[in-house]
């Protein structure tokens, strides 16, 4: 997964494809490996983190029926946290665009998802003056 930091888009795409391919035969192993890698490399640049997150999303979508309930729950929580962190980081430079997107998740009469609220709060903290 270290190759995700390669600047060549073709290499990045090959890493994504390899993770997805391996995820077809061993979805829980790949999801756990990606999760562990992201935890160990918390300073990984966001464009590279997104490659791994997208691969995790594809593996989950393609193998949802095969996943153990506890694995699925853990992966979804971690994936949502990582996605929230990406939005907050991007929001440090493009706050208006990120806020516009986050605000679309607020629907009248519907309680917002926990991670929407957490992202909203973290955006305000990271951009407070």
Descriptors for this entry?
MROH1 protein, mainly alpha, 129 residues, MROH2B-like_N_HEAT, globular, 6 helices
From the spread of the alpha carbons, the general shape counts as globular
**How much helix, percentage-wise, in residues?**
over 70%
On the 0-100 scale, what is the average pLDDT?
A: 86
Stretches where pLDDT is under 50 for at least 5 consecutive residues are none
The helix/strand order is HHHHHH
The span between the termini is 37 Å
Largest sheet: none
- Please indicate the count of domains: 1
GO cellular component, one term: cytoplasm
Organism: Burhinus bistriatus
InterPro entries: Maestro_heat-like_prot, MROH2B-like_N_HEAT
Domain MROH2B-like N-terminal HEAT-repeats: 19-127
Write the layout of secondary structure elements.
Blueprint: H1 9-25, H2 27-40, H3 46-63, H4 69-91, H5 95-103, H6 114-126
Helix pairs in contact: 1-2, 1-3, 2-3, 2-4, 3-4, 4-5, 4-6, 5-6
What is shown here, in short?
It contains six helices and no strands.
């Amino acid at each position: 997964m270290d190759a995700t930091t390669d600047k060549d888009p073709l290499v990045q795409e090959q890493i994504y494809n390899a993770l997805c391919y391996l995820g077809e035969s061993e979805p829980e192993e790949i999801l756990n490996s990606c999760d562990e890698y992201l935890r160990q490399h918390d300073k990984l640049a966001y464009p590279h983190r997104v490659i791994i997150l997208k691969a995790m999303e594809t593996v989950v979508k393609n193998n949802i029926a095969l996943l153990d309930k506890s694995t699925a729950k853990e992966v979804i929580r971690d994936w949502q946290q990582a996605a929230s962190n990406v939005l907050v980081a991007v929001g440090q430079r493009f706050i208006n665009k990120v806020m516009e997107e986050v605000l679309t998740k607020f629907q009248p009469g519907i309680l917002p998802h926990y991670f929407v609220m957490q992202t909203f709060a973290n955006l305000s903290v990271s951009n407070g003056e």
